[in-house]
C-alpha cells in the first residue's frame, strides 16, 4: 500500500511528462494504422472522439510498481500501464459516477474478447426501465456496453463485479458516468488486453 501511495503522489505532482523524440505522443489510430490487426479494424476510429488529453500516449512515470502493473487514477480519469523504470502508457478512461467510485488493490482474474453483458441485480433494481429488458444478457458486439474487450477484476480470488472494458459510448471517456467499472476506448482496451496478464496487479486510486 505504501507503494500505491507513493505512486499516487507521483501521478498527482510529477508523473505526466510526455516522452518526445523516441516516445510516441498522443495516439488516435486511423484506418491505415489498424489494417493489420484482426477485429481492431471494427473499432479503429470512434466517430465521437474524446478530448485529445485522453488519447493514448507514452509518458514518464515515477513509480516503484513492477512492469505490468495497472494503475487507475480515477480523479484525473487516466489509466497507466507500467512498462519499466520511469515508463508507462497512459490511457483516458471513464469512471464511476458519484456514489459509485471505489479504490483498492485487485488482480486481473480473467479476460474476454467481445464479452457478453448482463446487468447486475442491483442495476436492474436501480433502473428497471433501462436495464430490465437486458436481464437475459446482451451478446458481444459493437453495440454491447462492454465493448471489444473486458478485463475482470478479482480480490482474494473472488469477482469484484468491476471490469476494465471497452465502450459503445466513446464520448463518455474523461467522465464519471459508470456504475464503478473503468471504461476505455475500444482500440485502447484492445491494446491493454494484449499486455495485461491474468494475475497482474491493479491499483485503483481515489483521493
CATH class: Mainly Beta
Order of helices and strands: HEHEEEEEEHHEEEEHE
- C-alpha-based Rg, rounded: 16 Å
Mean pLDDT: 81
The major β-sheet equals: 10 strands, mixed
Under the CATH scheme, the architecture is Beta Barrel
Strand order of the biggest β-sheet = 1-2-5-4-3-12-7-8-9-11
Q: How does this model look, in words?
A:
The chain has 207 residues and is of the alpha+beta class. It has a single domain (2-205), classed as L,D-transpeptidase catalytic domain-like (Beta Barrel), CATH 2.40.440.10. It has helices at 2-13, 31-34, 121-126, 128-131, 186-195; strands at 17-18, 57-60, 70-73, 78-84, 87-92, 95-96, 104-113, 149-155, 158-165, 176-178, 182-183, 201-205. The strands form two sheets. A ten-stranded mixed beta sheet has the order 1-2-5-4-3-12-7-8-9-11. The chain has a two-stranded parallel ribbon with strand order 6-10. The longest helix has 12 residues, at 2-13. The chain starts with a helix and ends with a strand.
Give the topology.
Layout: H1 2-13, E1 17-18, H2 31-34, E2 57-60, E3 70-73, E4 78-84, E5 87-92, E6 95-96, E7 104-113, H3 121-126, H4 128-131, E8 149-155, E9 158-165, E10 176-178, E11 182-183, H5 186-195, E12 201-205
Parallel strand pairs: 3-12, 6-10, 9-11
Antiparallel strand pairs: 1-2, 2-5, 3-4, 4-5, 7-8, 7-12, 8-9
Amino acid at each position: 500500500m505504501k507503494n500505491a501511495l507513493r505512486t499516487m503522489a507521483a501521478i498527482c505532482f510529477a508523473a505526466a511528462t510526455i516522452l518526445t523524440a523516441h516516445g510516441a505522443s498522443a495516439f488516435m489510430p486511423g484506418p491505415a494504422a489498424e489494417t493489420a490487426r484482426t477485429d481492431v479494424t471494427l473499432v479503429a476510429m470512434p466517430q465521437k472522439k474524446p478530448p485529445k488529453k485522453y488519447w493514448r500516449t507514452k509518458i514518464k512515470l515515477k513509480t516503484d510498481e513492477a512492469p505490468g502493473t495497472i494503475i487507475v487514477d480515477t480523479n484525473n480519469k487516466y489509466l497507466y500501464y507500467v512498462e519499466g523504470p520511469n515508463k508507462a502508457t497512459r490511457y483516458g478512461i471513464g469512471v464511476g459516477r458519484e456514489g459509485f467510485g471505489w479504490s483498492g488493490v485487485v488482480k486481473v482474474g480473467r479476460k474476454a474478447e467481445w464479452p457478453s453483458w448482463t446487468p447486475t441485480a442491483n442495476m436492474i433494481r436501480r433502473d428497471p426501465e433501462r436495464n430490465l429488458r437486458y436481464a437475459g444478457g446482451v451478446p458481444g458486439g459493437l453495440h454491447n456496453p462492454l465493448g471489444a474487450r473486458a478485463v475482470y477484476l478479482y480480490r482474494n480470488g473472488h469477482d469484484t463485479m468491476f471490469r476494465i472494458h471497452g465502450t459503445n459510448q466513446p464520448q463518455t471517456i474523461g467522465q464519471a458516468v459508470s456504475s464503478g467499472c473503468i471504461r476505455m476506448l475500444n482500440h485502447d482496451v484492445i491494446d491493454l488486453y494484449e499486455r495485461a496478464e491474468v494475475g497482474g496487479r491493479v491499483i485503483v486510486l481515489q483521493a
